[in-house]
Automatic annotation (TrEMBL):
Residues 1-43 are annotated as: Disordered. Residues 26-42 have a biased composition (Basic and acidic residues). It is an enzyme of class 1 (oxidoreductase). This is assimilatory sulfite reductase (ferredoxin). Its EC number is 1.8.7.1. The keyword Metal-binding applies. InterPro entries: NIR_SIR_4Fe-4S, NiRdtase/SiRdtase_haem-b_fer, Nit/Sulf_reduc_fer-like_dom_sf, NO2/SO3_Rdtase_4Fe4S_dom, NO2/SO3_Rdtase_4Fe4S_sf, NO2/SO3_Rdtase_FeS/sirohaem_BS.
Amino acid sequence: MAPSSTPATPTARPRKARGEGQWALGHREPLNGNERSKKDDNPLNVRARIENIYAKGGFDSIDPADLRGRFRWWGLYTQRKEGIDGGRTAVLEPEELEDKFFMLRVRIDGGALSLDQLRTIAGISREFARDSADITDRQNIQLHWVRIEDVPEIWRRLEAVGLQTTEACGDCPRVVTGSPVAGISVDELVDGTPAIREIIDRYIGDPKYSNLPRKFKTNIGWLADTPYMANDVSFIGVVHPEYGPGFDLWVGGGLSTNPRLAERLGAWVPLAEIPEVWEGVVGIFRDYGYRRLRNRARLKFLLADWGTAKFREILEKEYLGRALIDGPAPELPEKPIDHIGVHKQRDGLNYVGATPVVGRTSGTQLAKLADLVEQHGSRRVRLTPYQKLLVLDVPDDRVESLIGGLRAIDLEARPSSWRRGTMACTGIEYCKLAIVETKKRGEELVSRLEQRLAGFDGDISININGCPNACARTQVADIGLKGQLVMNAAGEQVEGFQVHLGGALGMAKGETAGFGRKVRGLKTTAEELPGYVERLATNYLADRSSAT
Ligand code: SF4
């Protein structure tokens, strides 16, 4: 057959693969506003401008690119203007949403506070932050109502006692969480604190790692008593049959939208090598992490595409220059450990875990706590990622007196299940992304459930979040609440929650399958929330008794 004279249909030109903005693949040109801002000026440089210009010139002197971008690298976010409802969160411009005051996050790596540090935070809270102080779910303390004029003096006071706000927020290595009982637990074989210290001293504030694709969360601790699997990198204690105690390496966890739990790389890391391996993982994130789209810029997306085998290979070949040692999986707890109550330390003293309500404290309360701690012979306090606090080193004969003293300042070491199990993120009171109120609602919820179901003795965790960002870990609670607008019975849009059920066990065991189920249609208005939880709890109790 003669060849047709009709020209062949032009074949589509192969589409050039669109980069995800990975530096290691040559995509160095910033692909969005955040990347541009970081390239224009290393965010750590903003400190000098705060000290020399903005603190003197006041809020209105601040360059918007610094205000809404680089300030975060020093723990500063503008707080939400009072009175703006959640329905307007998504439609207002940043300048319409923000107040002229700041949230200041103090990073407390490993959650460890000395008495001097506790008193310093309490003093700053009372003098500069309208007595605000919230314990976060990453062992930080957040202050509110901070004026830019006061920030240099706050830094001076914090740094004088060894605290800092450096890289407490921003696209950089955030606070390192760790076991709140590191160094004192009878169950711990190796204290991870030296590795935390070394990472802080060597890498925090280092411009080499201050421009990451997005935030980078780390956890280091022998015990799995933190939500280690919700971190970008995590080291959990394990005994190697040949080499002895060391740490099991997990990478790629992160909740928020598209939640994913961290995965094991099957590698055993001795304590002394944690900082080097940590640097390798953060290096991979910096160089290969996706920067084009903010909502794909966490390490979990890279891990999802690469898989654990490739991730480990790149880590070994390109960053460490050696193979890691294969290691066994650690034993994981059956359920989350919050350390509430009285527990023996390995030196024979005791630690006492107590809880405020949904993490809310105040400078006044922390100052009273410091006095109480000292009166009972201790000089150490720890914060937990469940918004609780521990007093360490308490002699046997001072325990009951301490518990009574804590109760007198509204910190409860023998709390109801409801107070113990409920956490809340910052929410609409201060957070510009929030859709609903969380802290006050959490307090009301606990109070109502304590009245209505006073004798309830189950473990039910309730994590209240003001928006889908899941800062208080929506997906890994028994009852996870994600703030959103919902319809009430009258057909009006009101504050409410999407409900996720049954995620807590999966969290403890590190199983993605254990994420709470987001059941279609499972929503409640905020007003109906207490009744809703009450019904769930009543059904749970009925199920439990019919099963026995
Ligand atoms: Fe703000 Fe949403 Fe995070 Fe709550 S979950 S602190 S509302 S961003």
